[in-house]
Description:
Blueprint: H1 7-15, H2 19-28, H3 41-47, H4 54-70, H5 80-89, H6 95-104, E1 137-148, E2 153-164, H7 168-173, E3 182-192, E4 197-199, E5 203-206, E6 212-216, E7 219-223, E8 226-230, E9 239-247, E10 254-264, E11 269-270, E12 276-280, E13 283-304, E14 307-324, H8 332-338, E15 348-355, E16 359-366, E17 386-395, E18 401-416, E19 430-440, E20 450-455, E21 462-464, E22 470-480, E23 485-494, H9 500-506, H10 513-518, H11 526-538, H12 540-548
Antiparallel strand pairs: 1-2, 1-14, 2-3, 3-4, 3-5, 6-7, 7-8, 8-9, 9-10, 10-13, 11-13, 12-13, 13-14, 15-16, 15-23, 16-17, 17-18, 18-19, 19-20, 20-22, 21-22, 22-23
Helix pairs in contact: 4-5, 8-11
Amino acid sequence: xxxxxxxxxxxxxxxxxxxxxxxxxxxxxxxxxxxxxxxxxxxxxxxxxxxxxxxxxxxxxxxxxxxxxxxxxxxxxxxxxxxxxxxxxxxxxxxxxxxxxxxxxxxxxxxxxxxxxxxxxxxxxxxxxxxxxxxxxxxxxxxxxxxxxxxxxxxxxxxxxxxxxxxxxxxxxxxxxxxxxxxxxxxxxxxxxxxxxxxxxxxxxxxxxxxxxxxxxxxxxxxxxxxxxxxxxxxxxxxxxxxxxxxxxxxxxxxxxxxxxxxxxxxxxxxxxxxxxxxxxxxxxxxxxxxxxxxxxxxxxxxxxxxxxxxxxxxxxxxxxxxxxxxxxxxxxxxxxxxxxxxxxxxxxxxxxxxxxxxxxxxxxxxxxxxxxxxxxxxxxxxxxxxxxxxxxxxxxxxxxxxxxxxxxxxxxxxxxxxxxxxxxxxxxxxxxxxxxxxxxxxxxxxxxxxxxxxxxxxxxxxxxxxxxxxxxxxxxxxxxxxxxxxxxxxxxxxxxxxxxxxxxxxxxxxxxxxxxxxxxxxxxxxxxxxxxxxxxxxxxxxxxxxxxxxxxxxxxxx
Length: 559
């Protein structure tokens, strides 16, 4: 048998890769172990190319860190010590290691140079269904509830989470195309009501692998064999999602898979202020949703441990969001304002509720200093009731929307004591919210203005982003004030846990306490806070003008 052209080059390239990268490549191609002969020719050439080697990933990262050292930001905590420490430790890198460093250690200075978030958003479709390669991050996200013909209920989550590793001009200087500059991870989970939660171990692929790609019309997004595939030119729907992954959290690996087609949905819901969530001095995100995706039973199925389950019905939700999570203002005065006091902790809580009768509510709340007592809790006793102000959007059956504000009480908690891959993502035992009581004074119909969310499983629906951040997210049942079942939704809580040691291990860095402290995110010193406060006072009118020109800030300010 004659070898396929380039097979020897591919074998040499694969021999240089670590076991985790080989496992990700195999997982993306739906293989148990990677078979080089089954790698698509275009991907084989990319994998064997010079841009995809561990040496190339490490060299690009070191050059970028050196670039950041030469371009410090005024009125921001200094990262020089962090960058110099990283230059001492960073050598050859796997795609996952480079991704973990990029997402966790480089800070706001690394977000300079990406396309700014415009105000107004100016969203256009189908153009903006595509991945936005010049933004720092973005995601295509499907969640929902579905039922088999015999009445079994499941919650499903699928997300392609995309990161442009370097600002576009920097990437071009490295000889990377915009596609090659992307790193994309797969998040995939299935829960069975009254049963358990399966979370596939994250799969991470670099654009230089040749296994991340997309088509514009009709829109198709591929991560190996995992895909989001629109059927009709110029239209989002109908579309089919397909995914396969492995939960390695038990004694034996558990395979989960899905292929689900959505035949229709409601019109686009512009999140925040016309799609800005928020838009402030070039920072923030652009964000829209398509609620009430209707499952087409013809060919829609999930698979759990070899059991193929045909789906009879279901209702899902689609989000596309992009921009900068850890952005930096272009204006010195706003940088000073952001660093005049203790920075807020990272993380957020997000919810979508789809009520019987075709009503939808989606709300969001960022983590805040006032609630630090509820984060990173790992003791034997759960936290007490947490009360939160939330803001979001209500959509009526006709598709009309309005901004709503309300209060949320977390009255029960669950420990995230398992992991989809404990060898790489250590279980944290952190307490996460597990029952939510919402109350809206106005803007939401009276019969659903008060409702609760309860998970469809008793265990934590927890997982990990490939960057090391832990989250809990899964399907929930909606009950009205009288306790009646009135619909389904999804609840998401991100970054309640301290996963810094896991992050260091994923990045290939020293996980000692000393190293963790040395690479921790810098905070403004007392002197810097005073200096920044004075600077803001001297440039108050400039700051007021920036705020006046912003959009969507009301979703990030608690009253």
